[in-house]
From TrEMBL:
Enzyme class: transferase
A Pfam family of this chain: Phosphorylase
UniProt source species: Pseudoxanthobacter soli DSM 19599
Family: Belongs to the glycogen phosphorylase family.
Protein name: Alpha-1,4 glucan phosphorylase
Length: 833
């Protein structure tokens, strides 16, 4: 079933530019009147009884009205121009808070501030009331958010498609040093930015059987009869581009049961069981990344991925057929970008629709698919390239498995003509026969896409040599590079207004439209007066972060200390463990020589560990245990502080990043696809300490090797070391400092009363150091001392810091999206300025 109101769809997608009352005023008086109107007639409060949350909702709705005027105009222009649309499918969209995002892009921040001041309301206070949209976890979701904003900024007609998670990932608390997970309640007070579309509903099927119906003597049509149906209900959020010139749509799907309850069960007294089917159905859109440690968890993940991919395809095909009437023109008017493997079941779904519903010949349908899809790979980790057990897929998606088998058979027939070797054919097969018959989704995405892109130069090169080596021999031109970028509107102009003001004073307002002009800042890098202004902005940001640390953790930090920051998802390859082991070594050195003139340092960690990732959660515990010991030791005399800020999200990042002096990008070389945190931190003047991994390689090329701290093994050396063995005992024995650190952790110095608490961490270092923490430790420790020494030479430090900002213009997501548009999607762009 698809329920849609044509009138409502026309209003959104084809007609009037103007709202019923005409374009809304954007002066302070008009906004003040509208805010009061929303407070009274939407929120139902008076100025006397209104809380900060009430004022936030009223303000958001008044701002949203001004967005809608532009939204309808943008959509109408897309239809009138018969423009090709980009559809960005992603399981995550980490959009964060939207009030200031929208105000800044509409250039209404100061106007709304003035409007609220006339009502005795503080805009900055309202900012803190807005919850973060819990629609993502880390870099993948934040990249999707940056890309959506850049597509709007460059006037590319686009839809983002994902899931409207009721609770997102989880809210992280730290109790006695251990991560605790709680439901994220970001929707508990509603979401004033979204538009529910109850008229846009699609029935999504699962399970059942496939019937072969003969349509002629030679042809058979396959009809899928699902055993279960879930309704996908649309919710739209506007994505505003810079200057408000163009507005796109983020459409998220919520799962709804076709029947709210089993009335018969309810009437016979089974009041809980009457809702059981509904709870199972609606669990699809409850939580991001449910644990897949159990078969039930695996099934829920697959259901999530098919649910949103199928609904998105149905929606975009409806829109396309309404405008053009023929599925054969799909590649000319539609570009679908798969953000990682999560949405790539859409490939099979589109084949099913084209072949089974529209009755296209197989070869023609496959050609349409290959000219429509493109795929972004985000990881070289084999375990992160999704694969699904065949029995699970056969049970949930029986027709799709048939299609996958046929895709694979035809693919292997073609591959056999290139290389008949059995091992080669096994490596390029969509079906992995070595692991209990599983469908390799990365392989499927590669075959079905016209372009496959990596997200940094190193990552793309390694894709050709590792995970997709054999595919690269079959399609040597298919893999291309599109280095990631970040939106400067969020991560500089909004997050760091002090630095933004300084940049405008030095270069002029043109830099806000043309980030490549940041290079003009280089001329000020050695100017002592400018350095003082630059340092003052940084110190103010550090004071603000210090206040957050004190409020949340009760730890006082010195804003004149070196703020050493690692903010990432907690994962062994990102090597928070290396960081905390070096911290222990520094702590030991300070205690051994307390009178030495040490560089004061504040170590800041933040990030979430997956709920089922026990080793990562143990690393969080170690960080907190070390912090407890170090921060309470009077012999350190404030030369070292260690803090772990809980519940890392976009809003917390906006406070941490402008305050960072040193940016930790220390993943095992060859394992980080790109990184975007490294870009945000360097853009805000932090110097990077890191391996030659991901986009660190390109950052070094742009900022210069003298303005970045590189250490450790290269990707080639990592590969060679692993071939020799990953036993870490030799490296530990060869390093007196590391030996002392390992002994301290193992003996219970940081876990009194529970000496074996960190046994699993230490045992892995000694016998299975796959991430080569021990191999890189000495190089990392020495490079940290270089960073500490440079910090003491303020002129040299601020010169490098300014040069980092000056040379980060290339890492704008506008540049990334312009490259996607020209080289992959074949759509025009309009530069921001």
């Amino acid at each position: 079933m698809t329920v849609e109101s044509p009138a409502n769809q026309e209003h959104l997608e084809t007609v009037s530019v103007e709202s019923p009352g005409g374009p809304r005023g954007e002066d302070a008086a008009s906004l003040r009147a509208d805010i009061l109107d929303k407070l009274t007639y939407y929120v139902g409060k008076s100025t006397i009884t209104a809380s900060d949350r009430d004022w936030f909702v009223a303000t958001a709705l008044a701002v949203r009205d001004r967005v809608v005027d532009r939204w309808i105009a943008s959509t109408r222009a897309t239809y009138e121009n018969n423009a090709k649309r980009v559809y960005y499918l992603s399981l995550e969209f980490l959009i964060g808070r939207l009030l200031f995002d929208n105000l800044n892009n509409l250039e209404l921040t100061e106007t709304v501030r003035e409007a609220l001041q006339g009502l005795d309301v503080d805009l900055d206070r309202l900012r803190k009331v807005e919850p973060d949209a819990a629609l993502g976890n880390g870099g993948l979701g934040r990249l999707a958010a940056c890309f959506m904003e850049s597509m709007a900024t460059l006037s590319i007609p686009a839809y983002g498609y994902g899931i409207r998670y009721d609770h997102g990932l989880f809210r992280q608390a730290v109790k006695n040093g251990w991560q605790q997970e709680y439901p994220e309640d970001w929707l508990s007070f509603g979401n004033p930015w979204e538009f529910e579309r109850p008229e846009v509903v699609y029935d999504i099927g699962f399970g059942g059987s496939v019937e072969a119906v003969a349509t002629s003597e030679a042809l058979v049509k396959h009809v899928w009869h699902p055993a279960e149906t879930v309704e996908a209900v649309a919710y739209d959020t506007t994505i505003v581009g810079w200057h408000g010139r163009h507005v796109n749509t983020l459409r998220l799907w919520s799962a709804r049961a076709t029947d709210p309850l089993i009335l018969e069960a309810f009437n016979r007294g089974d009041h809980v069981g009457a809702f059981a089917a509904r709870m199972k159905t609606e669990s699809i859109s409850k939580i991001l990344y449910p644990s897949d440690e159990t078969p039930e968890g695996q099934e829920l993940r697959l259901r999530q991925e098919y649910f949103f991919a199928a609904a998105s395809l149905r929606d975009l095909l409806r829109r396309h057929l309404k405008a053009y009437g023929d599925v054969r023109t799909l590649p000319d008017k539609v570009a679908i970008q798969l953000n990682d493997t999560h949405p790539c079941i859409a490939i099979v779904e589109l084949m099913r629709i084209l072949v089974d519903t529209h009755e296209l010949p197989w070869e023609e349908a496959w050609d349409i698919v290959q000219r429509t899809f493109s795929y972004t790979n985000h990881t070289l980790l084999p375990e992160a390239l999704e694969s699904w057990p065949i029995p699970l897929m056969e049970r949930l998606l029986p027709r799709h498995v048939q299609i996958i088998y046929l895709i694979n058979a035809l693919h292997l027939d073609a591959a056999r003509r290139v290389n008949p070797d059995g091992s080669f054919l096994s490596s390029v097969s969509v079906i992995d026969e070595q692991a209990g018959r599983r469908v390799r989704m990365g392989h499927l995405a590669f075959m079905a896409s016209h372009h496959v892109n990596g997200v940094s130069a190193l990552h793309t090169d390694l894709m050709k040599k590792t995970v997709f080596r054999d595919f690269h021999t079959l399609w040597p031109g298919k893999i291309v590079n599109k280095t990631n970028g970040v939106t400067f509107r969020r991560w500089l102009y909004q997050a760091n207004p002090g630095l933004t003001k300084l940049l405008v004073e030095a270069i002029g307002p043109k830099v806000l439209d043309h980030p490549e002009l940041l290079t003009e800042l280089s001329q000020f890098s050695g100017d002592a007066a400018f350095q003082d202004k630059f340092a003052a902005v940084k110190r103010a940001n550090k004071v603000a972060l210090g206040k957050i640390i004190r409020e949340q953790l009760g730890v006082a930090v010195d804003p004149d200390a070196l703020f050493d920051i690692q903010i990432k998802r907690i994962h062994e390859y990102k090597r928070q463990l290396l960081n905390i082991l070096e911290t222990i070594a520094l702590y030991d050195a300070i205690r051994a020589q307390p009178m030495r003139d040490w560089t004061p340092r504040v170590k800041v960690f933040a990030g979430k560990a997956a709920a089922s990732y026990h080793q990562a959660k143990l690393i969080i515990k170690l960080i907190n245990d070390v912090a407890k010991v170090v921060n309470s030791d009077p012999t350190v005399r404030n030369k070292l502080k260690v803090v772990f800020l809980p519940n890392y999200n976009v809003s917390l990042a906006e406070s941490i990043i402008p305050a960072a002096d040193l940016s930790e990008q220390i993943s095992t070389a060859g394992m980080e696809a790109s990184g975007t945190g490294n870009m945000k931190l360097a853009l805000n003047g932090a110097l990077t300490i890191g391996t030659l991994d991901g986009a660190n390689v390109e950052i070094r090329e742009h900022v210069g090797p003298e303005n970045i701290f590189i250490f450790g093994l290269t990707a080639e050396e990592v590969e060679a070391r692993r071939r020799e063995g990953i036993d870490g005992r030799g490296a530990i024995a060869a390093s007196p400092q590391l030996s002392e650190v390992v002994d301290a952790v193992e003996s219970g110095v940081f876990s009194p009363g529970e000496n074996n608490r960190f046994h699993n961490l230490i045992n892995a270092l000694r016998h299975h150091d796959y991430f080569l923490v021990t191999a890189d430790f000495d190089s990392y420790y020495a490079t940290q001392r270089k960073a500490g020494s440079m910090w003491r030479d303020k002129a040299a430090w601020w010169r490098s810091s300014i040069l980092n900002v000056a040379n980060m213009g290339w890492f704008s997501s506008d540049r990334s999206i312009a490259e996607y548009a020209e080289e992959i999607w074949n759509v025009p762009v309009k530069p921001a300025g």
